[in-house]
Specification:
By secondary structure, this protein is of the alpha/beta class. It has 2 domains: about 1-165, Flavodoxin domain (Rossmann fold); about 170-295, Alpha-Beta Plaits (2-Layer Sandwich), CATH 3.30.70. Helix content is about 45%, strand content about 15%. It has 11 helices and 9 strands. The strands form 3 sheets. Strands 2-1-3-4-5 form a 5-stranded parallel β-sheet, with helices on both faces. A two-stranded antiparallel ribbon has the order 6-9. It has a two-stranded antiparallel ribbon with strand order 7-8. α4 links the parallel β4 and β5 (about 110-115). α1 crosses α5, α6 runs parallel beside α10 and α9 (about 240-260) runs antiparallel to α10. It is globular and about 60 Å long. The chain starts with a strand and ends in a 19-residue tail after the last helix. About 45% of the residues are buried. Bound molecules: flavin mononucleotide. Flavin mononucleotide binds near residues 60, 93, 118, 122 and 224.
C-alpha cells in the first residue's frame, strides 16, 4: 500500500513516531510517499497515496491548535482513507475523536484511530518525572506498539481508541483556558543571548523579539519547543502566573460556592480555571519589565527541560 504520513510535532516526539512508522512500513514492503509536516501538506500530496496517516500530539486532552487549524484548511477529498495516531503522555482525552471528526468533515473516511504513550513534554511546574532509562524504555515500548499497529494501519478492519464525547466536560474547560492564556507564563531569563532561535522555531509564529528578548502572544499553543530548543536554556515558565492564577482560582471558587452552594462544584472548578487564565493575563498586565524581573528569580522560575533529540533547532 502507498501511504503518506502527515504530522505536527512540538518537541519532536510525534516526529519521532512518524519516522519510526515510516521505517516499519517500508520494512514490510509498503511505499511511504512522504513524511510531511502538516504545515507543508499541499493538495497535490493528497493524490500521491491511497491512505493518509495523521499524527498529532495531545495538548490539553485535544490536538494542538495549529493542527486543528491546518485540518480546517485542507481541501475537500472524495473518500480518501485516513488513520489517526495521537501521541500522549498519559490521557489522550478528545484528541482522536476530535481529529476524526475534523477529517470526516473534509471528506476523509477514517479507518482507525490509535494512541501511543511517549515521554510527557508538559513540564509546567514540574520537571519531567522520567529518568533517562525510563525515557528510553518508554520509547522502546512505543516502538513495539507501533510494530503491532502497522498491520492495522494498512489493513481493512476498522479500529478505534476514541474516548466518549462525555470527556468534553473535563477536556473542554482545560482546553479553552490553557489555549488562551498558558503562553503568557513563558519568560526569558538573563541567560538569553538574543539569538532569535525561539522566534524562528515557533510553529505558531507567536514569539517576537522586543529589545532582543522573546515575548509571547496569547495564541501560543504551549508546545514547549522554545523551552527545550533554546541553546542558552534561557526560556522557562514562571510560577508568578500560576500564583496569580491560583489567587484568581480561589476568588472565583469562593464566589461561585457562595452563589450556588456545593451544587456548583463543577461550575466552581471551571471558574477556578478561568481564574487561572486571568492570573496569567494579570501576570503580563503588571508590566513586562517588572513581571520578568520577578518571574525570573530563582524562587519563581523552574528550569525544567526534558530530553528531546528530534526537536527542531532552527
Ligand atoms: C502543553 C502540553 C499539554 C499536554 N497535554 C497532554 C494531555 O492532556 N494528555 C496527555 O496524555 N499528554 C499531554 N501532553 C504530552 C504530549 O502529548 C506528549 O508528550 C507528546 O508525545 C508530545 O509530542 P511532541 O513532542 O510531538 O509535541 C501535553 C504536552 C504539552 C506540551
Amino acid at each position: 500500500m502507498k501511504v503518506l504520513l502527515v504530522y505536527f510535532s512540538g518537541c519532536g516526539y510525534t516526529f519521532w513516531t512518524a519516522q519510526k512508522l515510516a521505517t516499519l512500513l517500508k520494512a514490510q514492503g509498503h511505499t511511504v510517499s512522504g513524511v510531511l509536516d502538516i504545515e507543508k501538506y499541499a493538495p497535490a500530496e493528497q493524490e500521491r497515496s491511497e491512505r493518509h496517516i495523521f499524527l498529532t500530539p495531545t495538548y490539553f486532552f485535544a490536538p494542538p491548535a495549529l493542527f486543528v487549524k491546518a485540518l480546517h484548511k485542507i481541501p475537500m477529498v472524495a473518500d480518501k482513507e485516513a488513520v489517526v495516531i495521537a501521541t500522549k503522555g498519559g490521557q489522550q482525552g478528545l484528541t482522536t475523536v476530535y481529529t476524526r471528526s475534523l477529517l470526516t468533515s473534509r471528506g476523509y473516511k477514517v479507518i482507525g484511530t490509535a494512541d501511543l504513550t511517549l515521554p510527557d513534554t508538559f513540564i509546567g511546574l514540574k520537571s519531567s518525572q522520567l529518568t533517562s532509562a525510563q525515557r528510553v524504555a518508554r520509547l522502546k515500548k512505543a516502538e513495539d506498539e507501533l510494530k503491532a499497529l502497522c498491520k492495522k494501519i494498512v489493513g481493512t478492519e476498522p479500529f478505534s481508541c476514541d474516548r466518549s464525547r462525555a470527556y468534553s466536560f473535563i477536556a473542554l474547560p482545560f482546553l479553552w483556558v490553557f489555549r488562551h492564556a498558558f503562553g503568557l507564563s513563558f519568560i526569558s531569563t538573563d541567560a538569553c543571548t538574543h539569538c532569535g532561535l525561539c522566534e524562528k522555531n515557533c510553529p505558531m509564529h507567536c514569539i517576537h523579539l522586543k529589545d532582543g528578548r522573546p515575548v509571547w502572544k496569547h495564541n501560543c499553543t504551549a508546545c514547549f519547543r522554545c523551552v527545550n530548543a533554546c541553546p542558552a536554556h534561557a526560556i522557562d515558565m514562571s510560577a508568578v502566573s500560576w500564583i496569580l492564577g491560583a489567587c484568581g482560582a480561589v476568588i472565583g471558587w469562593i464566589f461561585v460556592r457562595w452563589f450556588f452552594g456545593w451544587l456548583g462544584a463543577f461550575l466552581s472548578a471551571f471558574v477556578g480555571l478561568v481564574g487561572l487564565a486571568y492570573g496569567c493575563v494579570a501576570g503580563v498586565a503588571v508590566g513586562q519589565k517588572i513581571y520578568r524581573k520577578v518571574a525570573q528569580t530563582p524562587l519563581f522560575a523552574n528550569r525544567n527541560r526534558i530530553a528531546c533529540e528530534n526537536i527542531k533547532k532552527g
